[in-house]
């Protein structure tokens, strides 16, 4: 059997060493037939670098690579082979290693990459005049001006066109890596002019350019990156262009698993690695499929690779609404959001929720299922694509809880056994100590509380059915915990933000919250599961100040029927008789008796 190309993205090596190769060579035909400048965005490890490598070996005029392609689909396209196979000067540059936490080092890395590019093509010195040679030498020696570096790719295309008498193909791999790094480490505004001028100079109105293909994760097609560039065609996960050329189709997965004689449950493979929708085509994660074949067992292969830091950061620091939607996604639901097709990393600085959802989608953490126009905006329904990605979201939330020292189960245990004061003290300490973890700005404490709800939805799901912001009774409750063990107690938690105009105090606001739970009959959903012993908690917050009131408190507001039971208890009526008369549980009546 052929060796798997684990960790290998050089097309020539894969073919020469007869490694297993899923034939995507017709990508070349589609690229030739597309516009002058093509930007392709796909999640990491979906074959972008391999495809750029394949095109380099196909077009490069300095090589004779007929033998690399003779057994591939593209070789049947005789007209393309005759006109294009090793017939074009090629500039190939990758930004995949341009990673730095500071501006100076990123600047140095970029200059080094451009210097290496010039060294690789120094044969063009034969056709340069003296002034051009001086600048060329300075770029090779890393001593040029920024303006010279910004024009370096364009000028090299001019020199190569002069040398070969043919227009140049430019291939730029992972073009958005420097931009992502700049966003992460706070020098976005400083680096984008340099990168933007470099790309614009190379691609806009470049008379020496035959075709350019750029790959990345996000679209970098606006602001200073491609300012004024009007000849660009974009292939993103939403579009039909090249929709089956990155990732594996169902047929390619079946063929791969059959070739390696791997026995598998089709549903399990689908559940774990399928789910992507690239322009209407069903796509599997190729990296995970190759590793599945290698390891011969299901596992989170793609998620165990690097590249998750930014996504984790955005979830942790996300708004209350974002955390609510993450909870729904983990529970298998779809959520509706706006997707910005031309999103760039700078949009994240605007605290744009749409930019975050777009990044999740473009990066492979979500799939889109449908779209519609709504108020002149295209809204998409998205969901988690498969079990591998769901596992990532669950682990991210669990890590958030561990890092912030939140022990939800311990707090709820105190609540269930009636230690309401201990629960209150624990929750207040938790708020004081961990609010900043979820809310770096200090301006939206709701992020903490919704982070807590999100944590409950993940950390307690083995023992509880967790519902939040759901229609219950006559209104909405923030959290409903329905125990799977029917002998256990149900819990309703209402979170309220203190309103200084409407509430006299935090305590008054918390009592109103408990009153709302009773009036809106939030307990109806829990009772529908056959559970009548229910703890109701109202938590009111004002920044880091918290007040908690529950039906376990001695000064609790009772419902009308509970007040009747209280009066009967005070008159010495038997508990079982009261239960029959009021339809309250024995446990509930005992709780009322305890607060007398």
Automatic annotation (TrEMBL):
**Which InterPro entries does this entry report, sorted A to Z?**
AAA-ATPase-like_dom, P-loop_NTPase, PDDEXK_9
Q: Per its UniProt entry, which superkingdom is the organism in?
A: Bacteria
Looking at the UniProt entry, the stretches that span the membrane are: none
Domain spans labelled AAA-ATPase-like: 5-226
Q: Cross-referenced Pfam families, in alphabetical order?
A: AAA-ATPase_like, PDDEXK_9
User: Protein name, please?
Assistant: AAA-ATPase-like domain-containing protein
> Which organism's genome codes for this protein?
Tepiditoga spiralis
């Amino acid at each position: 059997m052929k060796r798997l190309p684990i960790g290998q993205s050089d097309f020539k090596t894969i073919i020469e060493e007869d490694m297993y190769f899923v034939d995507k060579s017709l990508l070349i035909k589609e690229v030739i037939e597309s516009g002058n400048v093509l930007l392709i965005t796909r999640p990491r490890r979906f074959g972008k670098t391999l495809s750029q490598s394949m095109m380099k070996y196909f077009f490069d005029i300095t090589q004779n690579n007929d033998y690399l392609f003779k057994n591939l689909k593209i070789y049947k396209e005789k007209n393309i082979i005759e006109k294009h196979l090793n017939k074009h000067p090629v500039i190939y540059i990758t930004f995949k290693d341009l990673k730095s936490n500071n501006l100076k080092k990123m600047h140095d890395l970029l200059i080094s990459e451009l210097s290496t590019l010039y060294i690789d093509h120094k044969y063009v010195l034969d056709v340069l005049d003296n002034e051009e040679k001086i600048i060329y030498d300075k770029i090779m020696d890393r001593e040029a001006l920024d303006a010279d570096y910004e024009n370096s790719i364009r000028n090299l295309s001019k020199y190569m066109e002069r040398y070969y008498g043919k227009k140049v193909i430019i291939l730029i791999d992972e073009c958005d890596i420097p931009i992502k790094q700049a966003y992460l480490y706070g020098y976005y505004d400083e680096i984008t002019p340099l990168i933007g001028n470099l790309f614009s100079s190379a691609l806009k109105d470049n008379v020496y350019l035959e075709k350019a293909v750029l790959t990345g994760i996000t679209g970098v097609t606006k602001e200073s990156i491609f300012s004024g560039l009007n000849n660009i065609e974009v292939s993103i996960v939403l579009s039909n262009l090249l929709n089956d050329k990155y990732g594996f189709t169902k047929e390619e997965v079946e063929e791969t698993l059959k070739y390696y004689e791997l026995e598998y449950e089709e549903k399990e493979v689908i559940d774990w690695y399928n789910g992507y929708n690239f322009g209407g085509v069903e796509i599997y994660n190729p990296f995970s499929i190759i590793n599945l074949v290698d390891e011969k067992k299901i596992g989170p292969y793609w998620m165990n690779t690097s590249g998750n830091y930014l996504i984790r950061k955005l979830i942790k620091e996300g708004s209350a609404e974002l955390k609510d939607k993450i909870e729904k996604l983990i529970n298998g639901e779809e959520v509706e959001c706006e997707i910005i097709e031309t999103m760039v990393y700078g949009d994240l600085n605007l605290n744009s929720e749409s930019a975050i959802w777009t990044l999740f989608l473009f990066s492979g953490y979500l799939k889109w299922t449908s779209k519609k126009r709504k108020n002149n905006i295209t809204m998409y329904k998205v969901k988690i694509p498969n079990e591998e990605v769901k596992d990532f979201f669950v682990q991210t939330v669990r890590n958030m809880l561990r890092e912030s020292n939140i022990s939800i189960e311990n707090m709820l245990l105190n609540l269930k056994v009636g230690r309401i004061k201990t629960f209150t003290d624990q929750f207040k300490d938790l708020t004081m100590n961990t609010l900043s973890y979820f809310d770096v700005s200090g301006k939206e404490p709701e992020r903490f509380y919704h982070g807590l709800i999100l944590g409950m939805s993940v950390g307690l799901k083995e023992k509880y059915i967790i519902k939040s912001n759901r229609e219950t009774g006559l209104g909405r409750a923030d959290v409903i915990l329905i125990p799977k063990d029917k002998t256990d107690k149900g819990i309703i938690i209402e979170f309220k933000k203190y309103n200084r105009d409407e509430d006299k105090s935090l305590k008054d606001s918390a009592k109103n919250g408990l009153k709302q739970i009773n009036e809106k009959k939030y307990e109806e959903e829990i009772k529908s599961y056959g559970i009548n012993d229910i703890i109701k908690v109202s938590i009111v917050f004002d920044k880091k100040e918290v007040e908690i009131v529950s039906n376990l408190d001695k000064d609790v507001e009772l419902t009308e029927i509970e007040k009747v039971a209280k009066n009967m208890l005070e008159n010495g009526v038997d508990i079982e008789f009261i239960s029959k008369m009021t339809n309250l549980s024995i446990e509930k009546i005992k709780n009322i008796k305890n607060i007398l």
